[in-house]
Model the fold of this input.
Amino acid sequence: MKLYNTLGRQIQQFQPLKEGEVSLYTCGPTVYDYAHIGNWRSFVFDDTLRRVLESEGYKVKHVMNITDVGHLTSDADEGRDKLEAGAESRGSSVWDVAEHFIEIFIKDSEKLNILPPNGYKENRSAYARATDFIDEQIGIVKILLDKGFAYKTDEAIYFEVSKLDSYGKLSGQKLEDKEVGAREDVVTDANKRHPQDFALWFFTVGRFAGHEMKWHSPWGTGFPGWHLECSAIIHATLGDPIDIHTGGVDHIGTHHANEMAQTEAAFGNKLANFWVHNEHMLVDGKKMSKSLGNYITLEEVLKRGYAPADLRLLYLQAHYRSQMNFSWEALTAASVRLKGYRAFADLRFQPGGESALKNEAYIKIQDEINQALADDISTPKALSLLDALAEQAQDKGSEREPLVGFLKFIDNALGLELLASEDINTQQKRLIHQREQARAIKDWKESDALREALNKQGLDINDTSRGPVWSRG
Ligand code: AMP
Ligand code: ZN
Done:
């Protein structure tokens, strides 16, 4: 299998550290608000990657964190904690806000048929909450101070980036270049030694004096900086280095650079062998984001009558490393395409016929789809292969067993739930049969009336050489 590795900026042959097993970590949501469908593009991609790895035969251990503390509005050390701000605007406690949005996140994940993380605990806490790993985070701060990679001011404990030669290797940006980009208009700790130094632990003083989430530490009461949780959770659950670390491209420069630095400095280990980043979803050419206010939630998509699988297919139509522009028209087109796949899936309930597609046809396409997916997760290519096969099957009909096997494969690899649709009921079968009898004696009036009755129940009938073939309208 080949994957594009941000570390090294090229497509590389993927080889796990342990034969047959893959450790996968995903930076999860910050739970102060709804995830938008740009965020979901990221999480559906992680899920697709995991499904493809599993379909390649790997046992995947997947851990995803949930950020419920320390993520400041700037992604760096400026601004407010997103959770605290969210709680203030809603007039409730930070803990309640976190609980509320974790619940919604998990429900939406289920709707989108995203497999729950399995590498931490086999229950609801399969998601690793940052606030459940405070001791582990304090442990890392301790090591970094002891090793001389961190220093303390009155406001925070910082990681000193100039102490680590490899700092910034993920983005390829030199420290000197980043310094130029650092904003001068924001008020930061005057005792910070370098603008790129980042907080490991904030003290609840000054702008954070009223912080609701806080813990005791050997250096003073406070809360962890955002980047620290991922290093701590990976170390505690999967162990570093892991095989694959994922996230959106916006994380490359700061969050992932800092996670990497913490782990390398504290444990002398690489954090991950492969860094796989997905591109953004845009609206009118701009990144979909909460700060720009141009975002759409899954709830709104469903309210407008689309199914979660329509959105999933929309994501799969673009390669994960290309930006994609969201529009309702594009979502409608994906929905129509999905209907075509469902009609193909329904053929397993239809008459087969002489020239019906057989096992060999399915095996051949399955191999080709596997090759496309193993080639840096080329979902657009996989879908075009699926289109060609579905079209052939609609023309010729299909044998039942191989089609069911193939649908199972597609559902496992792409999560489209094509097998979920059910056969028509006996009464509907009877109507189709009666219509055939009416047609045999050329009673067109009766056959039209029966067609209409079926249409009313949401079934379209197509008369083919193999007999009547129905699909859901
Ligand atoms: P957050 O909850 O802000 O930490 O973001 C969760 C995930 O969504 C991260 O991996 C981000 O990189 C990703 N993300 C944020 N905005 C977008 C977008 N417009 N398109 C795709 N992914 C995004
Ligand atoms: Zn992270």
